[in-house]
Prior knowledge:
This protein is an alpha/beta fold. Helices cover about 45% and strands about 15% of the residues. It has a 7-stranded mixed β-sheet, with helices on both faces.
Amino acid sequence: MRLHKNLCFATVDGLLLIFNEGHYADKVVQQLLKRxxxxxxxxxxxVAETTYDIVRWKRLYAxxxxxxxxxxxxxxxxxxxxWATLKGISLPDWKYFENTPTRKIKGRFDEFSKxxxxxxxxxxxxxxxxxxxxxxxxWTKEAAALNEQADVILRVxxxxxxREKLKSDLFDLDIExxxxxxxxxxxxxxxxxxxxxxxxxxxxHFEVQDxxxxxxxxxxxxxxxxxxxDTCAGAGGKTLHLxxxxxxxxxxxxxxxxxxxxxxxxxxxxRAGAHNIEPRHIDSTKVIKKLYDKADRVLIDAPCSGLGVLxxxxxxxxxxxxxxxxxxxxxxxxxxxxYSRMVKSGGKLVYATCSILPSENQDQVSxxxxxxxxxxxxxxxxxxxxxxxxxxDGFYMALLERK
Length: 403
């Protein structure tokens, strides 16, 4: 691979914003990709993937380059040189790469490969917390899996097409996909690519959604004609899946505290042809109380640390603080206690997170079942998903039934 100056400059500029200014990687990359109209898909792919790669391995590269935050521009170039050297890319004779100690870089890499938190590039506190929660062996495997680039998985919108038909339509566009055995509506892209420009996407035939995430709506055991409440709907990935599982029959009330996310959900629902979704903004507790004892099914896709989705969101490793985990656990407890009251007698609830920590998952469910508000519920089953076992995002889901 040959390095091109304008692409490397864009990457360095982006990394300065992410590391020093606290900007979110996905937003920075979106902006960078609009920087030069002459860039082709390969150029844009280089900028996006290199930026994410250096964010993912920030600690390892900084330790090898012997630089500390806040990084100046020259130090980011040094980290870039480490990235290129470890990828086996020969460095051009630019002034930024003068005196790059290639052999020393490889030696330091071998040295740090013996220290998990540096090798896998995690902050000390996160490495300690996860090792304690999951056990040293499991966390060692999971830490490595969370650094692998996530596959692009599509969820077929069965309101508009079938998996076979979508697979064939994409094949006609030279986009190869494969079916996943245990995920009935999933297709995996053989190669990463921009699928959002396809007619199939614009016509609402699919959404991009990780395979683990696709299990959540199915876990709720919905049927056409039910009244379902999605309590933390966000922009509606799982809401839309529920609509297709319900064949557009019945009612889905999509709640969220962020009105702008519900507006995005409306747009997505229109594209998907999902007509049974009613977004409601939680602007007071009245919105929740009106639904007490009214729902056949309730989904609580709870706010969480997101430690299960670090493959697609690596800068969360560096933005998150230990206090946030304690704070989010309190929020989870409150939400479970309050929103569970929407389930009517004989109805069911799913509590889900994209975290791998038992303290956010099975411990929360146990605490709820032992509490006053959870005494009418029983645990039907739960599913703990780890990336190193499945190759997909880390997730947790528990199905509870109200007696």
